[in-house]
């Protein structure tokens, strides 16, 4: 993490004892966050986990350093140059500012994370004007450090505790006159060696964001400058405008309208906001893939299944996974909620074929309820009878039955040209499921990671512009096959 350069031109405003206490309080809050996340049983493979280790270790090291300084400063002259430098050199205020910004965010993913992009030959030549156009230059890998990754990965936050005084000094050194950069400030062009560090950083973050996509979208960049105010010094306003010209948002303080100018909220009041909600962007109607239909009726999903010698190794693995995390109450029921559930006719047909061929009596019974074989049974009766075939609590609001719909080929005509390339690379059943969800704007729930990744790669490779999006797909991190009857069969339910 790039710490802020300390300002040692003024006497320390706090004592070593106070800094030590503040470092312990900060560590305590991070440990409280870890406990909160653990209580939510956040999976490492999901967006619910938060990368905390490196940030926490930096604070531990700073706290240890402060405690050592406290012992050394006992009885020392607190106004001496050495003492002033020691106290003002602490990185603790920067770490506190990062944590305060994180607590005002939502969907926390990580602290202190690097992102990469490839710098082209033209970019390198633009930075170093001494390089001739005829000089061959190899593309090089560049990276930039992001202090906080939030909104499920869609926002990068960069915090700087630089002061207005230091900014004005740096601007004068870089040759700014009347608040204007003497170099070319076009955001798409890399700056020179004496460019202001904040503007250069904004450009680097922009380049990295353009090389990164989360669900087909580029992350938004947000700068947090708690010690810089807007509307007071024109030169600083101009600097902020240069940062904003790269596409970044900028929060300044202290100001009545700036979040970073107010005290950070207590962790207990905002802890839930820090969790990523993986279902926030779900459509009101969910398109259920064949893999999920099978998981919803599998005996493996509804209670303890004793291993048998006849079981395929994939089923043995799923039995172990179910012991660690219950697929229905922990993942699928929360994902589906009370939303309407549909599946394409092709997905329904394939699911029925597998259930009829190898399904157990209870798996067939659940299938009849899930698909509403008896149209006279209302939803509450279907839920009640389904509950009788499960060891888990089946939510009252579960929207049974799953409705079978036609995968309207005509509707696909509204899709971008990329969809044709995607369709050519999918099997008939996957074409019906994923292109239907894409054309209808419905979120598709699937455990078919291979197909979902193929679709994402094809869309990214062949899309015509940044506004072109692929289908909304939620991948269930684990699958469940039917228990089945055959001894040496392969694992069914992979779609």
TrEMBL record:
UniProt superkingdom: Eukaryota
Record-linked Pfam families: DUF1308
InterPro entries: DUF1308
DUF1308 domain location: 286-371
Protein name: DUF1308 domain-containing protein
Organism whose genome encodes this protein: Trichoglossum hirsutum
């Amino acid at each position: 993490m790039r710490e802020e350069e300390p300002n040692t031109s003024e006497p320390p405003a706090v004592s070593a004892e106070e800094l030590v206490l503040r470092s312990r309080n900060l560590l305590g809050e991070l440990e409280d966050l870890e406990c909160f996340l653990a209580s939510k049983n956040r999976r490492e493979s999901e967006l619910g986990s938060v990368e905390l280790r490196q940030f926490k270790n930096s604070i531990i090291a700073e706290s240890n350093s402060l405690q050592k300084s406290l012992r050394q400063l006992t009885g020392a002259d607190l106004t001496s140059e050495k003492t002033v430098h020691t106290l003002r050199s602490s990185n603790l205020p920067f770490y506190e500012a990062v944590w305060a910004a994180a607590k005002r965010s939502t969907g926390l993913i990580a602290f202190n994370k690097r992102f990469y992009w490839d710098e082209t030959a033209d970019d390198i030549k633009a930075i170093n004007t001494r390089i001739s156009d005829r000089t061959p230059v190899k593309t090089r890998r560049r990276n930039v450090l992001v202090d906080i990754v939030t909104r499920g990965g869609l926002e990068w936050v960069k915090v700087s505790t630089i002061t207005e005084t230091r900014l004005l000094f740096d601007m004068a050194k870089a040759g700014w006159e009347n608040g204007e950069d003497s170099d070319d400030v076009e955001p798409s062009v890399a700056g020179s060696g004496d460019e202001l560090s904040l503007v250069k950083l904004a450009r680097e973050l922009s380049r990295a964001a353009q090389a990164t996509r989360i669900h087909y979208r580029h992350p938004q960049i947000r700068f947090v400058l708690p010690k810089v105010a807007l509307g007071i010094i024109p030169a600083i306003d101009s600097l902020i405008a240069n940062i904003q010209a790269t596409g970044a948002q900028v929060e300044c303080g202290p100001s009545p309208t700036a979040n970073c100018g107010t005290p950070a909220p207590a962790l207990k009041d905002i802890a839930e906001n820090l969790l990523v909600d993986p279902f926030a962007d779900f459509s009101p109607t969910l398109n259920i893939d064949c893999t999920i239909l099978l998981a919803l009726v599998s005996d493996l999903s509804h209670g303890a299944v004793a291993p048998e010698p006849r079981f395929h190794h994939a089923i043995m693995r799923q039995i172990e996974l179910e012991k660690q995390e219950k697929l229905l109450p922990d993942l699928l029921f929360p994902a589906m909620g009370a939303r309407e559930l549909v599946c394409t006719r092709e997905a329904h047909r394939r699911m029925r074929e597998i259930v009829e061929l190898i399904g157990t009596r209870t798996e067939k019974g659940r299938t009849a309820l899930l698909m509403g074989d008896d149209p006279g049974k209302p939803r509450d009766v279907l839920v009640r009878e389904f509950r009788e075939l499960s060891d888990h609590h089946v939510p009252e609001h579960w929207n049974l039955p799953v409705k079978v719909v036609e995968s309207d080929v005509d509707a696909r005509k509204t899709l971008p040209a990329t969809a044709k390339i995607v369709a050519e690379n999918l099997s008939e059943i996957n074409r019906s499921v994923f292109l239907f969800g894409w054309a209808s704007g419905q979120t598709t729930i699937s455990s078919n990671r291979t197909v979902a990744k193929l679709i994402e790669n094809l869309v990214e490779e062949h899309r015509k512009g940044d506004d072109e999006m692929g289908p909304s797909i939620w991948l269930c991190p684990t699958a469940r096959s039917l228990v089945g009857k055959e001894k040496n069969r392969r694992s069914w339910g992979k779609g």
